[in-house]
Amino acid sequence: MTAINLTPPSANPQTHTERGDLHRPAALTPTVDVSSLIDTTNGVVDRAIFTNREIYEQELRRVFAPSWLFLGHVSQLTKKGDFFTTYMGEDPVIVSMDQDKKIQAFLNSCRHRGARVCRADAGNTKAFSCTYHGWAFDLQGKLQNVPNEAGYNEKFDREAWGLVPVAQLDTYRGLIFATWNPKAPPLPEALGDMAWYMDAMLNRDPEGTEVVGGVMKWVLKGNWKLAAEQFATDWYHVNMSHASALMVLSPTGKGPVSGIANTPGRQYVDPQGHGAGFPTHPKSRFDAQAVHEHYDYDALRDRLGAARVEGPMTTGHATVFPNFSYLPVNGSIRIWHPKGPDEMEVWAWTLLDKSMPPEVKEAQRLYNLRTFGPSGIFESDDGENWSEVQAISHGFITNNTPLNYQMGLGSERHDGVYPGTTSELYSDAAGRSFYARWADLMNTPAWHEETE
């Protein structure tokens, strides 16, 4: 596969070649300075970041294109020829297992006229063929067949017109991530201390994890950041927004007792924009009873440490910047695909420990469906909130009225128990850090904008 040259021209631009190297004029990609829209010192955010089209287009270039993005789980690919399709930002992507059983990822767009070469969600194949003119590509994205190839002159080079590969691809405990950015730091470095918190969900079982039940997909009105930010930072909404769901799940039908409802806890605040919040009350585990009874918590403490078992393994929430989120207690993992400033497409999986007995896996799967997912009693509350926020944010006065992110200002510290910086559970600290990272990327030229 041949990567596309996205680097802007130098003072002495090279002549365009038959290999498809083009240099797009900077005037086609206007840049917005977002410095005045995010004030993390005072905890204030301008609503234009959720509604402005130019800001959204800049996000695709400077937030999504340079960042490590979640693609899927390794259990979705088990044999040669397996594939699934997804998105990185708004770019369609194929993830496949090639003949050497190596995971590949490349842009799902034919190099001839640009149609997708794969329109299925998942499956098994020997090649990807464009239905427009018939160009065909192998499992590594190499161009293998060109109908009427004799019509091209001797300069035509198949190797130069393969599907565009991601610059880097890596996995972390079964999760597949990739980036278009050849200069991005390695995935472990990009995750940093966040990996410790992720392990509360991903490293409970020596056999690892798997996803079951396929991918649930639905569309919501609302900016993708509203969802990603909430999962990073917002326990504050739980008792209010999810009051009816908590009543349904509680043994008495009246909701959790005050000690659990007003639980103590911590919130992890990552300079890379990641975030995680978690109660530390021992009974704050609103999972399926069969799952709760399955776990040997003493063994888990030996494996993961007491701080993880009594912290991020409880009913917590987390986001890996920019748009991958998860809920460790019920195994919900999801990605918020941006579909313009006013819409997102949510893709969610149920993640399970491999060694769970079948009946426990089924209990967890059903519990996940009932709580999160398109018909979940918690999920519907969240979607309504995000859609409501977005619905009124285009009003002139509304859009010019800033939002308050001041909860927990000054509470960030190293607490000596959890890695990195933490705040109180009821805090906007991780949200402020999320937007600080977002603003930094938005105001920094990405690798494809750097001049020679």
TrEMBL record:
Key word DNA repair present in the record? no
Q: CDD domains in the record, alphabetically?
A: RHO_alpha_C_NDO-like (cd08881)
Q: Name one GO molecular function term.
A: oxidoreductase activity, acting on paired donors, with incorporation or reduction of molecular oxygen
Rieske domain span: 68-166
Instruction: Say if the entry is tagged with keyword Iron.
Output: yes
Instruction: List the keywords (alphabetical).
Output: 2Fe-2S, Aromatic hydrocarbons catabolism, Dioxygenase, Iron, Iron-sulfur, Metal-binding, NAD, Oxidoreductase
Report the PANTHER family cross-referenced here: 3-PHENYLPROPIONATE_CINNAMIC ACID DIOXYGENASE SUBUNIT ALPHA, CHOLINE MONOOXYGENASE, CHLOROPLASTIC
Into which family does the record put it?
Answer: Belongs to the bacterial ring-hydroxylating dioxygenase alpha subunit family.
Protein name listed in UniProt: 3-phenylpropionate/trans-cinnamate dioxygenase alpha subunit
